[in-house]
Amino acid sequence: SYELTQPPSVSVSPGQTATITCSGGELENKYVSWYQQKAGQTPVLVIYQDTKRPSGIPERFSASTSGDTATLTISGAQPMDEADYYCQAWDSTIAWVFGGGTELTVL
Amino acid sequence: QITLKESGPTLVKATQTLTLTCTFSGFSFNTGEVGVGWIRQPPGKALEWLALVYWDDDKRYSPSLKSRLTIIKDTSKNQVALIMINMDPVDTATYYCARAYSSGWRFDYWGQGALVTVSS
């Protein structure tokens, strides 16, 4: 079965750039989405189709995919960005697969 | 405004069957290019996709749980049901329903989630 691998945790200081990776076979050939889940809350879509931001998501959130790795970048991370982040891949063969999640700490 | 809401039992016993219903508003299967899926999250653990039904009634299931799952839509009622048989305590989780949209098939709108506890 298809798997996505994320680092369990990432820590940055406020104002720094946070980078969260997601690895999976031939990931560049799949659609990748990213979700933010704050403690006790429902997941929120922050990136879809590899690089696109839904309306209302700050510009400091960006993403890219190359080869087997997708990367979510939060430029100038703020304390409000502390959350768990999940990548998710889709194609017609694997359907939907989520990564194991990355806990982002900003302090 | 698009909303989804899960409903169903909060407690089930091991070996029983769980039926959850997702009632949504603000979109319709009739307009096409959408799906409604179920995702679960055990306490303190990661998200896990379970199943999805497309607007055209095509259905997809997680390979690891396919034998235990059935997803059904009622277009006239704007509802999607998930049926999971042979429940086990490890199935204790918050169960979310979410809309999937065809551009990248992302889950763009989520329900608030329903915590289901399975007792032994």
In short:
The complex is a heterodimer of chains A (107) and B (120). Chain A is mostly beta strands and 107 residues long.
Largest sheet of chain B: 7 strands, mixed
Assembly classification: heterodimer
Order of helices and strands of chain B: EEEEEEEEEEE
Round the Cα radius of gyration of chain A to an integer and report it. 13 Å
Task: Please tally the β strands of chain B and state the result.
Answer: 11
- Average pLDDT level of chain A: 97
Number of helices of chain A: 0
The number of E-state strands of chain A comes to 9
Calculate Rg of chain B over CA atoms. 14 Å
Explain this structure:
- The complex is a heterodimer of chains A (107) and B (120).
- With 107 residues, chain A is mostly beta strands.
- Chain A has strands at 9-12, 18-23, 31-37, 44-47, 61-66, 69-74, 83-91, 95-98, 102-106.
- In chain A, the strands form two sheets. In chain A, strands 1, 3, 4, 7, 8 and 9 form a six-stranded mixed beta sheet that branches. A three-stranded antiparallel beta sheet of chain A has the order 2-6-5, with no helix packed on it.
- Chain B is mainly beta and 120 residues long.
- Chain B has no helices and eleven strands.
- The mean pLDDT of chain B is 97.
Keywords for this entry:
heterodimer, A: 107 residues, mainly beta, three-stranded antiparallel sheet, B: 120 residues, 11 strands
How are the SSEs ordered, and which strands pair?
The complex is a heterodimer of chains A (107) and B (120).
Chain A: E1 9-12, E2 18-23, E3 31-37, E4 44-47, E5 61-66, E6 69-74, E7 83-91, E8 95-98, E9 102-106
Parallel strand pairs in A: 1-9
Antiparallel strand pairs in A: 2-6, 3-4, 3-7, 5-6, 7-8, 7-9
Chain B: E1 3-7, E2 11-13, E3 18-25, E4 34-41, E5 48-54, E6 59-61, E7 69-74, E8 79-84, E9 93-101, E10 106-110, E11 114-119
Parallel strand pairs in B: 2-11
Antiparallel strand pairs in B: 1-3, 3-8, 4-5, 4-9, 5-6, 7-8, 9-10, 9-11
